[in-house]
Amino acid sequence: MSLGNRRKTRTEHSGGKNGGGYWGKRHEAKKISKKHRRQNGKQEIIEQKSKENI
Questions:
Q1: Contact between 13 and 5 (Cβ < 8 Å)
Q2: What was the pLDDT predicted at 25?
Q3: DSSP structure string for the chain
Q4: pTM, rounded to two decimals
Q5: Are 28 and 22 in contact (CB under 8 A)?
Q6: 29 near 22, Cβ under 8 Å?
Q7: For the chain, percent of residues with pLDDT exceeding 70
Q8: Is residue 40 scored above 70 in pLDDT?
Q9: How confident is the model at residue 52 (pLDDT cuts 50, 70, 90)?
């Protein structure tokens, strides 16, 4: 058994699975994702407050 053969057949758990949807750098994707999450959170708070006032 050679080590080279073992490396070729490894298909599972061979690296980070970060969604695969963004084609740029990870830190760029995370920066955008954090920004969108904050915006969505603010919108959710506004919607909840408007429902309470009805």
A1: no
A2: 85
A3: --HHHHHHH--SS-S----S---S-HHHHHHHHHHHHHHHHHHHHHHHHHHHT-
A4: 0.53
A5: yes
A6: yes
A7: 61
A8: yes
A9: confident
